[in-house]
Amino acid sequence: MDAIKKKMEKLSSETADAERRISMFEEIKAVNEQEAEKFEEQLRIIQKKIQNMESAYDVCIEDLFNQTVKLEGMEKKAGNAESEVSALRGRLILLQENNENKKIGLLNQLLNLLVLVSELMEQLESELSWRMVYLLTRNLLTTLISN
Question: What pTM was estimated for this model as a whole?
Answer without folding.
Answer: 0.48
